[in-house]
Amino acid sequence: MNKKIQISRITFIAILLNLLCCYIIKAQDSIPYQDSLREANVTLSRMQDGQGESLMLGNGDLYGIVWEKENELFMRITKNDIWDARIDTSKDGDVPRVDVVSGKISGSHGTPPSYKHLYPQPRCAAALRLGAAPKKMSAQLDIKRALVSVNSADRPITTLRILHDRNVLLIKSPHAVTLEAIKAETLPDATLGTSNGVSWLLMKMPGDIDYKGMDYAVAVASKGTLKAISLVTSFDIQSDDVLEKAIALAKNTLSQNEITLIATHEEAWQAFWPLPAANHSELADPWISYVDQLLPKFKYLAKDRYGIDGACFPISSFIHQPDPEICSSKNQRQIVMNPWGMTIGMAGMTIQSM
C-alpha cells in the first residue's frame, strides 16, 4: 500500500514539474535552442534533382516536394489518404494457417500473385509548374516558419507555405501556376478543367468488389501574385462533391487577408516549437488512428491464421481496408506471404508508439 502511495506521489510530482516546465516556456513565449532550430534550415544553391536536391514542406496531411525541372520550378503534392487501395486476390492460393499446437503451417507458400500488382500503393495527387526557375538561384527551407523561399540574388521570387490550419498550398509568385495530371498505366486519366477562373483536376480512383475507391480534387485559385492550391479527398467529406469543396476552399482562402493568413500559419508553428517532444501527444494520433481503423483486420487475422482470439499485426498492412468479415474477395481480401509474412515481431513494433 505504501509503495503504491509512493509511486503515486512520484507520478504526481513528475506531472507537476512537467506542467511547470510548460508554463515557464509559455510565459517566456520563446523557442528554446533557437540556434539549433536555425541550423536545421536547409539552403540549396541548385535544385535539379527531385531525390537529392529538392525541398519538402507540409502540415502533417498535405505535403509536397519542389525542385527545378526543365528550367522551371516544379512541385508534386499529395495527401496521406490518397491511395490506389485496390487488392486483387482472385489468383492467390489458400491463405497460410498455423496450427499453434503442432506448429505446422498449411496453405500456399511464397509470394502470392496479388502482391505482383502495382497496387495497393500511395499515389501522388498532382504536379504543379510554378514558372521559370530564376538564374543564380538559391532556395531555403525555413523550419521555424514552415516556409520555402526560392530566391534570385538574395531576393525572394517565390515563397511557398502549406498552411497549418487547412490543406492549402499558399504560393506568392509573379508566375502562373499550371496543373498537370500524373498518369499511370493502371489508373484512368484525371480530368482537367477551369471554372470561373479556377483551374482544377479531378481524379476518380477505382475500387474493387469490396472497396468503392476514392475521389480527390485539386483547385488552383489566383489573386494577383497570390495563389491558393487546395486538395480535398472523398475521405475528408461525408457527402457533397470533392471538386466543389476544393474550389470553395481555394477561393475562400484567397478571400482572406494575406498578412493574416501568414501570421496565423507562423503563430501555429511558434506554438509548436517551445513544447518538449513528449508534450506533442497529437503526433501519435495518425498512427493510433491507423491501427484503430485496421483493428477488425488484425482481429480477423488472429482468428483465421492462428485460431486464437486477439490481434495479429502482419508485416504488410494497407490503408482503406474494409473489415474482412464482410469482404467477398478470395481469402476475404487478405494478402499473406509465407513464411516471411508470418512473423510475430510486428506486434511490438506496432504498439511501442501507442
What features would you describe in this structure?
With 354 residues, the chain is α+β, with helices and mostly antiparallel strands. The chain folds into 3 domains: 2-30; 35-83 and 120-274, putative glycoside hydrolase family protein from bacillus halodurans (Beta-galactosidase, Chain A, domain 5); 86-119 and 284-351, no CATH class. It has 7 helices and 18 strands. It has helices at 2-28, 34-39, 242-255, 258-272, 285-293, 295-306, 346-351; strands at 42-44, 55-58, 62-69, 72-79, 83-84, 97-98, 105-106, 121-122, 126-132, 137-142, 147-152, 155-162, 168-172, 178-180, 191-195, 198-205, 214-223, 226-233. The strands form 4 sheets. A 9-stranded antiparallel β-sheet has the order 1-10-11-12-13-18-17-16-15. A hairpin with a 6-residue loop joins strand 6 (97-98) and strand 7. The radius of gyration is 24 Å and the shape is globular. The two termini are 29 Å apart.
Name the features.
globular, single chain, 5-stranded antiparallel beta sheet, Beta-galactosidase, Chain A, domain 5, 7 helices, 354 residues, alpha+beta
Summarize the structure in short:
The chain has 354 residues and is an alpha+beta fold.
Write out the strand line-up for the largest beta sheet, numbering strands in chain order: 1-10-11-12-13-18-17-16-15
Structural class: alpha+beta
CATH topology of the largest domain: Beta-galactosidase, Chain A, domain 5
For the largest beta-sheet, the strand count, sense and barrel status come to: 9 strands, antiparallel
CATH class of the largest domain: Mainly Beta
